[in-house]
Design brief:
Distance between the termini: 59 Å
Cofactor: Zn(2+)
Pfam family, one: PTPS
Structural class: alpha+beta
Strand order of the largest sheet: 3-1-2-4-5
CATH class of the largest domain: Alpha Beta
Family: Belongs to the PTPS family. QueD subfamily.
Number of domains: 2
CATH topology of the largest domain: Tetrahydropterin Synthase, Chain A
Low-confidence stretches: none
GO molecular function, one term: metal ion binding
Shape: flat
Number of strands: 5
Radius of gyration: 26 Å
Number of helices: 4
Strand content: 15-25%
CATH architecture of the largest domain: 2-Layer Sandwich
InterPro entries: 6-PTP_synth/QueD, 6-PTP_synth/QueD_sf
Bound molecules: ligand LPXRUNBV
Order of helices and strands: HEHEHEHEE
Length: about 180
């Protein structure tokens, strides 16, 4: 009985050291990977800015006008108001040594214009924009929707979408990192 006890004690000490060893070696591998990535991968971020103006209101259709005004204030005015929005699209990845580009900014401009700007510019976000249907037309929801639209196109280019930043006014902006 005593030998059994002694054996299981030794076993659990051995298990302890094996698990510590495994954790440490995992840590070493991830540290090595980070050092490798830091020295050899040169991650670069580039941004394209586009502008559009659009009308909207912040109001839930299932709330009364008074309820909407209580929460959203003048932004809930029934007859809409407009903003000059600024959209910043940032993509990241590595520079192609042949071209010196991460992606061609002219290509990025075209993708943003085709899939976003043409759909929102001089429109009503609540009424005219398919990807905002059924959503509250806040800057947060707009940024998330723009991310969802652009992400697959950016991925196709081999780059990665990093950030969608939208200024609704000079003082108010939203950033979304997916
Ligand atoms: N979390 C959010 N809050 C608000 C949003 C939004 O999208 N997300 N939007 C609005 C209004 O639509 C609008 O942006 C606010 O206008 P305003 O208060 O006039 O903001 P300004 O920067 O133009 O005015 P200041 O004078 O700088 O306050 C409200 N909230």
């Amino acid at each position: 009985m005593e030998t059994d006890n002694c054996f299981s004690k030794k076993n659990s000490i051995l298990n302890f050291f094996v698990s510590v060893y495994l954790r440490l070696s995992n840590l070493c591998l991830s540290t090595l990977y980070c050092i490798f990535a830091f020295y050899f991968e040169k991650m670069i971020y580039i941004t394209r800015r586009e502008s559009f103006n659009a009308a909207h209101k912040l109001a839930r259709p299932d709330w009364t006008e008074d309820e909407n005004t209580a929460v959203f204030g003048k932004c809930a005015n029934p007859n809409w108001h407009g903003h000059n929005y600024q959209l910043y699209v940032t993509v990241k990845g590595e520079v192609n040594p042949e071209t010196g580009f991460l992606v061609d900014l002219k290509w990025l401009k075209q993708v943003i214009n085709t899939h976003v700007i043409d759909k929102v510019d001089h429109r009503n976000l609540n009424l005219d924009v398919d990807f905002m249907k059924g959503k509250l037309a806040s800057t947060e929801n707009l940024a998330i929707a723009v991310w969802d639209i652009l992400k697959p196109h950016v991925n196709e280019s081999g780059a990665e979408l990093h950030c969608i930043k939208i200024y609704e006014t000079d003082n108010n902006y939203v950033e979304y990192f997916g």
